[in-house]
Amino acid sequence: MDHRLKRWHSVAGALLLLTLLIVVVGSAQADPYPQSTLHPKGDFALMVDKLFRTTLFWATLVFVLVEGALVFVIIKFRGKPDDPEPKQVHGNTMVEVIWTAIPALVLAMIAVPTVRTIFRTYETPKGADVLQVEVVGHQWWWEFRYPQLGLTTANELHVPVGRTVALKMVTQDVLHSFWIPQLAAKRDVFPNRSTTLWFKAEEPGDYPGQCAEFCGLQHGRMAFQVIAQAPGDFDGYVGRMQATGGPAAAPATPPVDSAAAKPAAAANALNTATLAATVQAGADTVAGSQLFMMKGCVGCHSLNATKPMGIGPNLAGIGHRLYIAAGWLENTDANLAKWIQHPQTVKHGVLMPDLGITEAEAQSLVAYLRQH
Ligand SMILES: [Cu+2]
Question: Is the pTM of this model over 0.85?
């Protein structure tokens, strides 16, 4: 066999192997990367994905045809040692018209759906059924307000499946960018000017989101979760959040711990240990509610979802959030206690100061916050 052909074979073989490797690695890692635009679960993201796939199809077709023709011609008409001088030609109108017309046609086929999709993504959904949400970016966390429901929360956006959500977004400080890869595209968020975005989750699930515009030291830890729920579950969530506005949850009156009171009444000599533990837990939450006021937490955080407050995230429902510190630190008792004691170590530079909370005080605060 020709020496050059042999070398070409090994190059082609290596390329094929590399392609296979990319495909295998890519598909094996499909799941560990939920923050991927390639797994759309909302109508907005599906629309963008469809456009991407259409473009990819035409691009692949053009690549295969052009490169195929090129490789074919290179091999078929390659020079041999005693070839005569080839015929010299200049220009061919027919060929030039064809290779201008075909790319123009391909570009038009890509441009029409692209422009149509771009306009569609900037529409503002209207109608009584649209769930309005106001998004406020802060260094380094996200605030979500539901004007129709009178609720405010942070870092965890609950939405009902199958209902369009219309976001109106601003920021309190610097530029941020709101991005939920599986549900909708990225959209920048500015001070003094609002931008909009919309999406409809098609399947229940937890969809991670992330700030996508560098906004300072902890930009990488400015994440959030979108929790898409069946409509009934969403109504339950709304009910629980609205209940935090009731008198029992107001920080000024520490809640009477009914969970601790009931078993205490039923207790007898045989389960004094349980009783002691329950009383201890009750005492902890009372101490926690006092610490929450005394240590100044209440100056930055509201535990009432119907009463927003400026500086820190609203903590109503914090006991049930999946993550703390803006969507990346798992909400376990240990992590919560560590955060309360040393926010500046866990997420250096945040607006929450280290307040000199002791281990025991942190435990009481955790017990208290777990009830919210
Ligand atoms: Cu950022």
Answer: no
